[in-house]
Amino acid sequence: THVKGCYELLIVITHSHQQQFHHVGTQRDIVKAKLRSRTLPDSVSFADSNRHLRQEIADMASSDDARQAELEMLQQIRTQKQQLADEIKALREGIAEIQRELNELDENSGDEDVPELDEKEVKRRAARKEFNVKPKKGLKMMIECGMVTEDAKEIAKLMFEADGLKKGAIGELLGENDPLNLEILAEFSKLHNYDNFDFDKALRAYLWSFRLPGEAQKIDRMMEAFAARYVECNPDVFSHQDTCYVLAFSTIMLNTALHNPSVKQKQTLESFISMNRGIDQGKDLPEEMLTVLFNSIQSNPFKLPEDEGGLSFTFFNPERKGMLNKEGGQHKTWKKRFFSLCNNCLYYFESPESTKPKGTIPLESLYVREVTDSRRPNCFEIIAEDKGAIKGAKTNRKGQIVLGKHQSYKLQAADRTEMEEWIKCIRAAMQKDPVYEMYRLKKQRIT
Q: Beta partners for 384?
């Protein structure tokens, strides 16, 4: 009877705290029902019953604490939600106010203040846009819409001013071998004034005015034009135009050797002086001149136009560029990357808009071959001739350039034609270095 009286007291206490535990009403009702329905055997002692009672009370308290914590968290969420709603409301009001002010400006400004583009200007803009994609066709459109005539001087002046024109497209046009293009190149070079310019300063200005194309023949013509103009402006610096030409290529290679991240062994002053021995009609150029030139390039690399894929440390338009799928080195996952083949090196970027490469693959001592993969068609890979590790470089998460660990680079093109073109271009790049080859041939001729 005493035990049953304790249970009845518990029920009374539970009822008296109904307001305090209203948030756990369901649990409380369950406990009450258990208490009411519970029947005790005659053999249960008072101590056992008291222990059961304490356990029931502890379970209720624990459940209540958990529920209270959940309610506090819910209240915090509601408060934050209200704050966000207030901020969104304020932003909307601000946007609406700005829109009203813009509408008032539009109403107060007459049509004469914002004239529509006339047909002539529309055609000129279309011509510039086309030129940046297809220089030859774009120039034809420029002539047709009256931007320039077919006079080489006029066209050269337009290229020199480069208003809205990409430096890469200008380089493509200047490098063509058609009679008009050759005349344009000559006139373009004459627009540069190199009077009393140091050699490296003149070369910097020339390389900034356009971007060298990738084809060897085009590079040769353009560097010949630079050498002719520099010697014309500074007749006492070199004994012959060919000396200026060879030194220009030597300087380009020096800049690449010192500042291209894919080149691990940097060129020294001694090797630079050595490679230029005898280029002045069999004589050596003054070591003081070469030392000043080396120090200038080492401390201040060439600044070049970056409108072509962000290859700010290379001199040439890519020989080929485009999107390819690339297999990862460690995790073997496939990702789309933008590739650019330039300067006997294959660079890959996060996207065409990226300004810094994620990795570089020097093509020396490598070869490329087609790979048959039933799951991934149109695949090819670049591997080392000795089947060893490729001396590539990549950018880690901290932006640091580190050595890659690839045994091969496996790539996938969109279709078979594209795959074959990539293989063809990469093989050609592996077999030659256009800058060094022209430097070697010209030096051989004059020494």
A: 366
Residue in 135, 169, 254, 164 with CA at minimum distance from that of residue 204? 254
DSSP state string for 60-110: HHHHHHHHHHHHHHHHHHHHHHHHHHHHHHHHHHHHHHHHHHHHHHHHHS-
- Return the structure tokens found at 111: 């049509």
Q: What is the DSSP secondary structure assignment for residue 58, as one 8-state letter?
A: H
- Structure tokens of 360? 């570089």
104 is catalytic: no
Nearest C-alpha neighbor of 174 from the set 161, 155, 149 = 155
CA 6 to chain centre: 78
Of the CA atoms within 13 Å of residue 137, those in its CB half-sphere come to 6
Model confidence pLDDT, tens digit, residues 34-60: 445 544 444 445 556 556 656 666 666
Integer CA distances (angstroms), 87 to 57, 75, 231, in order: 45, 19, 68
Q: What is the pLDDT of residues 115-153, one digit of tens each?
A: 556 788 889 999 999 999 899 999 999 999 999 999 999
Q: Residue 195: CB partners within 8 Å, gap ≥ 6?
A: 233, 234
Exposure string of 181-190, with b = 16+ CB inside 10 Å and e = fewer, is bbebbbbbbb
Q: Which of 215, 350, 420, 437 is catalytic?
A: 215
The type of residue at 98 is I
Range name among 51-60, 166-175, 382-391 with the lowest pLDDT average: 51-60
Which one, of 378, 383, 379, 363, lies nearest residue 432 by Cα? 363
Name the DSSP class of 117: P
**CA gap 213, 396 in Å, rounded:** 30
Residue 140's CB is within 10 A of a number of other CB atoms, namely 15
Strand order through the sheet with 359-362: 366-371, 379-384, 408-412, 320-327, 334-342, 345-349, 359-362, 393-395, 401-403
Phi, psi of 287 (to 5 degrees): -60, -30
Maximal CA-CA distance, the chain: 127
Rg (alpha carbons) of the chain, rounded to whole number: 38
Do you know the residue count of the chain? 447
CA separation for the pair 447, 445 (Å, rounded)? 6
